[in-house]
């Protein structure tokens, strides 16, 4: 394995550990009926979207993470996305994700979100860009806390590699 591969693997492992710890001990939010199984990594597609609204202000910038069930079965997701930044050439950037409220949205808290085929869950992702910044080109997103992750284009300056993210929700996280 190359040095770059080792750094990327270490960064992903740290993000996965953070994500896995965030969902530990959480009870299912589903009622008394049968519950959907956990979404399998190969059936989830991650993208970013502005969802028609701008998240820019006071040196903060944001976007929404959108994870879509591309499988043929209903499944469930919960917790926080594992995140890691990459620079040009997919070099690892030290990344510090913070789970909870962001500058633009209130955290909905960890709860199960059931995704029928073709349906999506959302999380708010925010960073600042006023101080010493890292130039990120890509973002690794591990939606389920497993080693499986997606890499999305992410051409942004991020102060100190710090990212704030809300838990997954069936609707766009908002300020209220």
Query: What radius of gyration results from the CA coordinates?
Result: 16 Å
What fraction of residues sit in β-strands?
A: 35-45%
Structural class: mainly beta
- The count of β-strands is 13
Q: What is the tally of helical segments? A: 1
**What is the H-and-E element order?**
HEEEEEEEEEEEEE
**In angstroms, what separates the terminal alpha carbons?**
46 Å
Q: State the low-pLDDT regions, or none.
A: 1-33
Q: How confident is the prediction overall: mean pLDDT?
A: 82
Helix fraction?
10-25%
- What composes the largest sheet? 6 strands, mixed
Q: What would you call the shape?
A: globular
Oligomer: single chain
Supply database-style keywords:
six-stranded mixed β-sheet, 12% helix, 176 residues, disordered N terminus, mainly beta
How do the strands and helices of this protein lay out in sequence?
Blueprint lengths: L2 H21 L13 E2 L5 E6 L6 E2 L2 E10 L5 E3 L4 E5 L5 E2 L2 E4 L13 E3 L4 E9 L4 E10 L7 E10 L2 E4 L11
Parallel strand pairs: 1-5, 8-13
Antiparallel strand pairs: 2-4, 3-4, 4-10, 5-9, 6-7, 6-11, 10-13, 11-12
């Amino acid at each position: 394995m190359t040095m770059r591969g080792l750094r990327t693997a270490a960064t992903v492992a740290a993000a996965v550990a953070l994500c896995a710890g965030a969902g530990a001990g959480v009870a299912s939010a589903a009622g008394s009926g049968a519950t959907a199984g956990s979404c399998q990594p190969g059936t989830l597609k991650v993208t970013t979207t502005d969802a028609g609204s701008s998240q820019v202000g006071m040196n903060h910038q944001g976007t929404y993470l959108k994870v879509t069930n591309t499988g043929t079965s209903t499944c469930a997701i919960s917790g926080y996305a594992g995140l890691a930044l990459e620079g040009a050439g997919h070099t690892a950037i030290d990344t510090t994700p913070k789970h909870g409220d962001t500058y633009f949205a209130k955290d909905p808290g960890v709860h199960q979100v059931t995704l029928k085929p073709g349906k999506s869950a959302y999380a708010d992702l925010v960073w600042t860009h006023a101080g010493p910044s890292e130039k990120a080109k890509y973002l690794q997103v591990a939606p389920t806390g497993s080693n499986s992750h997606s890499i999305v284009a992410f051409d942004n300056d991020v102060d100190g590699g710090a990212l704030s993210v809300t838990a997954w929700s069936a609707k766009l996280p908002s300020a209220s």
